TrEMBL record:
4-aspartylphosphate: modified positions: 55
Naturally occurring in which organism (per UniProt): Streptomyces andamanensis
UniProt name for this protein: Response regulator
Any Pfam family the entry gives: Response_reg
UniProt KW Cell membrane keyword: no
Length: 227
């Protein structure tokens, strides 16, 4: 299947470079370009995009708001958002993950990294840059939101629906580990791990593994650490 990619960035030069790169791949194509968030949401629906490469800072509706709109629309539940950032706005990145983005990527990344990120997001199987994403989530959730220890009591209660093994797998997912790595750690098959991950996502209402990581931290199942 061809991965349908939507570019959302207000810089024409960057969009042009991304288009050339994406269209050069046999398994993906650019189906639209947006210069601000509202247009990105509309085109994601009209063009049936699989992955949106979303800049955070755009005029009008920014990438963060657009990500929330995409995540909240049932008609777009198969759309995955990859946030493009300079890593100078880490707090925005974490907000984006909370809003439903599948992960993030630096604009200075190598072409192969961008293509891998698109394929990974489309598959919904793993976080983008898991170690960096985990570090950002830990750092900013550790700051809390001014309420107790930052734990979300609603999400904490929802963890009661998970089995013991699903909790174990969720902890490993929050550690940025792949299915194969988790399988080796827990001495089970990768298929079993994938089944537990999918069940945890369904029970917790998570769109993908990125949201599972956020839920694991916000619920208090995994405690943030700042090294």
């Amino acid at each position: 299947m061809t991965i349908r990619v939507l570019l959302a960035d207000d810089q024409a030069l960057l969009r042009s470079a991304f288009r050339v790169l994406v269209d050069s791949e046999p398994d993906m194509e650019v189906v639209g370009e947006a210069t601000e968030g509202t247009e990105a949401v509309r085109l994601a629906k009209e063009q049936r995009a699989d992955v949106v490469l979303m800049d955070i800072r755009m005029p009008g509706t920014d990438g963060l708001a657009a990500t929330r709109l995409i995540s909240a629309d049932p008609a777009l539940d198969q759309v995955r958002v990859v946030i493009l950032t300079t890593f100078e706005v880490d707090d925005y990145v974490v907000q984006s993950l909370r809003a439903g983005a599948s992960g993030f990527l630096g604009k200075g990344s190598e072409p192969e990294e961008l293509l891998h990120a698109i394929r990974t997001a489309a598959a919904g199987e793993a976080l983008l840059s898991p170690a960096a994403t985990k570090g950002l989530i830990a750092r900013f959730l550790a700051q809390g939101d001014g309420t107790d220890d930052g734990r979300d009591p609603v999400r904490s209660a929802r963890l009661d629906a998970l089995t013991g093994r699903e909790r174990e797998v969720l902890v490993q997912v929050a550690g940025g580990h792949s299915n194969d790595e988790i399988a080796e750690r827990l001495t089970v098959s990768p298929l079993t791990v994938k089944t537990h991950v999918n069940r945890a996502m369904a029970k917790l209402g998570a769109r993908d593994r990125a949201q599972l990581v956020v839920i694991a931290y916000e619920s208090g199942l995994v405690r943030p650490r700042v090294d």
